[in-house]
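pipeline stage [seq->struct] | target=Putative transporting ATPase | organism=Pseudohaliea rubra DSM 19751 | residues=181
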Amino acid sequence: MTVAAVVLEQVFADCFGIRERTRLCGGAEEPFYLPAAAPGAWHEIHYRADYPASALHEVAHWCIAGRARRLLPDYGYWYAPDGRDADAQRAFEAVEAKPQGLEWLFSQRCGMPFRLSLDNLNGELVAPVRARFAVAVANEARAWRARGPGGRAGRFLAALGARFPEGRPVSTMHFSVAMLC
């Protein structure tokens, strides 16, 4: 496990472990959210391998998910596998722009790179699709920065800032579409 992944798991545990009975777990072949199986049990956010970017992305989904969604496996969302057609890709982008925008804030706050993810390696990935999604994610990141994430997202962002002093303060973050294309 990378040092960054271990640190992110610890930051998450310090913020939410006991309070939300939720743990961040690396090593998964595919990311997924598993709600507690019984009262008193823990919820688990599984992220891919030991990739810090995957951890930040999955935490962004968790921060956005409401109470009812956090009781459902993978928050009750569908997932169309790699090789999506144009309509399925647009549906993916509509769901993913907001968490990827928040992930971008998290990434900058802890000084880690952010990469746009169309998550469709076997589908049509043409420049206009990438550009369209880049605009949507940049707009979401700017909106998160402007309103200041509250709740769980705000708590996690503050904890990242305390643990990663080399990261950028929210007030100096920049979100340019050119950075994603």
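stage status: PASS
auto-comment: DSSP finds five helices and three strands in the chain. Residues 86-109 form the longest helix (24 residues).
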